[in-house]
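Why do we care about 3D structure at all? Because function follows from shape, and shape follows, mostly, from sequence. That is the central idea of this module. The next example makes it concrete: a single protein chain, its amino acid sequence, and then its structure expressed as tokens.
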Amino acid sequence: MQSAARDGPTRTPLQERHLPLLLLLFVASGCAALIYEIVWFQLLELVIGSTAASLAVVLGTFMGGLCVGSLALPRVIGRERHPLRVYAALEIGTGILGVAVLFGVPAASNLYAAAVAPGFADLVLRAAFVALCLLAPTLLIGATLPAIARWLDATPRSIAWLGFFYGGNIAGAVFGCLFAGFYLLRVHDMAIATYVAAAINGTIGVIALLMAARLPHAAASPGTRAAPTAVVTSALRSPDARAAHIAIALSGLTALGAEVVWTRVLSLMLGPTVYTLSIILAVILFGLGIGSSAGSAIGRAIARPRIALGICQMLLAATIAWAASPLATSIGWPAELPPSASSWLGFAHDLARCLWAVFPSTILWGASFPLALASAARNARDTGRVVGGIYAANTLGAIAGAVGFALIVIPIWGTQQAERLLIAVATLAGLIALVPVLWPARETPAEGNASGARIAGLGWLTAGTATALLLAITVPPLSPQLVAWGRRLPRQQNLPKVIYVGEGANSSVAVTERADGVRAFHVAGKVEASTDPQDLRLERMLAHFPALIHPNPRSVLVVGFGAGITAGTFLLYPGIERIVICEIEPLIPPNVGPFFKRENLDVLNDPRVEIVYDDARHYVLTSREHFDIITSDPIHPWVKGSATLYTREYYEFVKRRLNPGGVITEWVPLYESREEAVQSEVATFLDALPNGTLWGSRPSAGGGYDLILVGQDDPTRIDVDSLQRRVVRPEYLPVIRSLVESGFGSMVDLFSTYVGDRTSMATALRGAQPNLDRNLRLQYLAGFAAGALEHERIYAHLVERRGFPEQLFTASTQWKAQLKEAFARTK
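And the structure:
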């Protein structure tokens, strides 16, 4: 170690004093990197969709770029370059490329949409598109730690500073995650967030250049370059280095695999809002930062950091099992807040829950990285290569964990088996690190005298392995009631029977049945469809309205399968020849549809029906087919990702897929929402479709907890006389029966649910914030409204200026008089 210190650059007191400043720069760098990550994920899902496969492509490319950057920099840039100037160039380059991605992704999306084709080629094209957008900036981000590592020697003190740099980078990432999720994107938009991150990169680069001008770098002389490379190669092949690389790769696999599992379960427990996901990520990063600082101190203090690395992995088996029990049930820790609690208090409560469950594991993962560095750095001279190798191994393992658990482990075996597998892999990582230390292949005489201690150590290791296996066996299954009711579970009474539960690639779903026979379909911990009369009415109205308004509909696109009731209602119309159902979760139609076979008219087995498994936005963007009707019943807007189906740009895409005279319908929930969110949804729809109209879901009595938005390019005209002549034909008898079952005994009853149009909504929508691709404002507004029960007040505000729509209906004076009378009853 002393030789390595002599051959590399040595630190002067002035340089030592600047290490804390360099640490602060790494904190700022981590902040910028997480802002970019959140913005890029949000930006790219607008183009390639938000399916599990698409998100895996984005995550794999992002982390793959970090991996390649960490490996490439020490091999491409020589040690003679001033590390601070290299670091400055990386930060400035990241800022420039970050802004380029902001403008480049929307510009390239049209080329992507024109080139996409169904099947495997589509997935390859998605990967190529993401790589084109993200590979360059992620290479630079991944190269920053190896670059700055060359400013340090391969001494225990320097390795400790590397751990502190890594921990500081993570601390900055925690702030960046919360700053972006709770302020920049909630108050501003993706452009402002990107500019802030780029400004941070630029400031870091300037400060690093000023430091480089003041602090000279002792470059390696030409005659000594070959020796360090040979020593590095030898060091990387040493038993400690090999074990460190394998253990840290498996540690990365368990870390990201657990993050996938925990995000799935915690999203059920806390509600899958954009804020919940920011809190989960921040807690994980916070634990990694704390652990990294602790691991740095431990690595400096002990002679064999590889032993500490192995112990961390063995302890991970216990902490993963610790998290499994509360995550499986959500009951008994900490107590549920009342519904009246403020959103901010709810976020603090969610933070406490996340810390309780996952914080112990994240500390151990954080400590593993500097301990692996210390293990691999023995006798190494180029700290850049050491750091790059460990960072790359950890990142490759993380990619395998994220992609494998999201696309394979959870969909096939579920979260219980996933947690058992995580415990097993963590135990394996511990054994790889510890067994060779306790039982080396070749013993020296001095080591032979320690055989008793080794036997004792192997005994403890055997006991630890047995304990880990026992913990894996005792991991509880995910509560079916938690899948069904999510955050509302502790407040539910007389819980219905769960008759189906499944965990898919994109979501967990359940079907329940009440004592009175009412069945409900649950996804993301809430009811999305049911056979309750008020829900059946809405599900059928989403089909009846456009099918009755359109004079002769033949083709339909249904966004979201749900229980299949909306799609099945279209089967009643004799002119319908083709129905395409776009569903993001492949688990739902074949497993949920049969439970609602009577209500959805066995829609899955009708020859007119085709099911496409894709993100609806991606399908609409890339499809070449046109439809007479496009009806959308997406998941609730506060669920992260669903806001992309309520943007003005999305409605413009939908309009391009309509045949002349086509009709669009969109579901807008008033329950579990607040006025600001509803205003945003309605105002955005009417901005894209100025001739749109609003309809309620409750006949006769007025009110309701749902809205249906109906839009056409041209002004909507409902010829009542022609419509009535159509529906009295024999082939329309099933349609009439369905309307009567839904509570509509006449056309007057149906059209009395009219709420308003753009003109009558002007006052109610004043100050509404439009939901645009660049800000996805709705998911931030709706995220504050999850659990709110203000639907009656919101509805009353919407209809307070409702007038009779004379131009909407072509009908006799007598019929209009009846409708006006119905309006008076429902106002």
